[in-house]
Amino acid sequence: MLNRYPLWKYLLILIVLVVGLIYALPNLYPEDPAVQISSSRSNVTLDESRLDRLRNALDEAGIDIKGIDPQANGALIRLTDADEQLEARNIVNETLGDEFTVALNLAESTPAWLESLGAAPMNLGLDLRGGVHFALEVDMEAALTQRLEVNASAMRESLRDERIRYRDTTVEGRTLTLTFASEEDRSEARNIIRREFPDFQYENRDAGRGAVLAMTLTEQQVSEIQDYAINQNLTTLRNRVNELGVAEPLVQRQGPSRIVVELPGVQDTAAAKRVVGATANLEFRLEARPDTPANETETLPFRNNENRTAELMRDVIITGDSVSSASRSFDENGRPQVNINLDGTGGTLMNRATRSNIGRSMAVIYIDNQTRTRTVMKDGEQVEERIPYTERGIISLATIQSALGNSFRITGLDSPTEAEELALLLRSGSLAAPIYFVAERTIGPSLGKANIEQGILSVEIGMLLVVAFMLIRYKAFGVVANLALVTNLVLLLAALSMLGATLTLPGIAGIVLTLGMAVDANVLIFERIREELRARMPIQQAIHAGYERAFTSIIDGNLTTLLVAVILFSIGTGPVKGFAVTLSLGILTSMFTGILVSRAMVNLTIGGKPIKKLWI
Prior knowledge:
Low-confidence stretches: none
Transmembrane segments: 7-25, 455-472, 479-501, 507-529, 550-572, 578-602
CATH superfamily of the largest domain: Multidrug efflux transporter AcrB transmembrane domain
Pfam family, one: SecD_SecF_C
Number of helices: 16
Number of domains: 4
Membrane topology: Multi-pass membrane protein
Structural class: alpha+beta
Oligomer: single chain
Helix content: 40-55%
Distance between the termini: 22 Å
Mean pLDDT: 82
CATH topology of the largest domain: Multidrug efflux transporter AcrB transmembrane fold
Number of strands: 23
CATH class of the largest domain: Mainly Alpha
Domain SecD export protein N-terminal TM: 2-104
Organism: Modicisalibacter ilicicola DSM 19980
């Protein structure tokens, strides 16, 4: 019989619609503006008396509380108005003091039964949810200097193994120089170093009573080091952002030496900037013996007491690059510490160094690359000049009791927050070169709210216009097309939510375009039915022919558009990808609803029934 589906097709369509409705529902529950409170110390808890003080303080300030969710080491205060977040955070800070860390947050409000099914709302991009945009500059010259320092340390070790004496090592620009007592020592050292480091241009220089070997990086090696620096920094920043738990962040290269970072939903910009822009690293060095030559030692202060110093070896055992995992905890006295696991190479180097130096002290050095900005006159104009500098301080200096392996701990940290951030930085990896903030833009939640409202309005207007046109043009069949259009919108939202895609303003534009294109299939089908009716074909046969003969045209038209969307996604970035994702998903859902769902509704209402006149 014409215009009848088998039962399994109806069941399949019903299952898809039910699943789509369930996974689209969380988008009706927007996130609540909230204030996150967490304890700074393990022995301090947010008890009921403190919560009562918070409620009274917020009530006195006229701030409405939607609810308070107790958590393991603090609480989450949900608010009704995003404009009151900053004021609420300040009040909470004043009420609780330094024992707690207070930050802005956005809390999900999805019902528990939907969460149990894995349903969650769409991620919103920076332009809709608010957040921060950073532009970072990678210091390429510092990358070269760091590589030369590593090479210098390796060269010194090789020379000591071969018992070749040297006086001094200096790094200036792209050149590393070694000073020797005689030309014979220099000649022998040059032969040894050249085998291990072929990427230098070697030159012998005279220096009064000594002999100098100058090694300059080749242009190819400089280019490779700089490319490695920015690619390594990209990887490290992505790891750091992932540790922050930001949904769908953007971390990408911009030009030869810049990196762009966008963090949707982040409102505690100071904390985000501190973690993203941190250039900290660790070095592990042995304390110098009294008879160690002065050119092989370096005096460094302690971080928590600059008046106290220690004489350390210049050679580095390992750096933070060898750390495979790190976590914060507390020692037996309740002081913060960082538990560290090393990779295979790092564990071997640490074991080798400590096994032969039991009873000797080893220092953990915290290194932070910073920059100062000053205003100078250049070509008659005032410009800002960045002056990079490096701070080094000893975290701890402890005696080696036994040979260390892949696991040990770092103590001597000032606070749990510092320990947590240090563990985060070590887990995510160290930067290959310092980075500096050159631009910072904050998009507030109020602006994001306005964008969402305007985007929803555009969808509503577009949908109303399409609905009106279909009703006027196709009458009863227009109702079928409009129901299929609503179904298409629900399925599109469900698909975006299930895939964890990020919705941006261009993505909303893709949804609006999809709504306009979604009825194309029905227009082709209905126009084909009209042609068959004008050719005096029976009504049921005309309906069947309309769906069957328009199918090829619908597939061809949508596939070409889908191909363009795939190309946009593959070569585009940021907003272009967001547009391509919503357009691609919209094409797939519109084909499903325009062909299968609309025909199922027609089959259920008039399929196989004797009809004298068709309102189309």
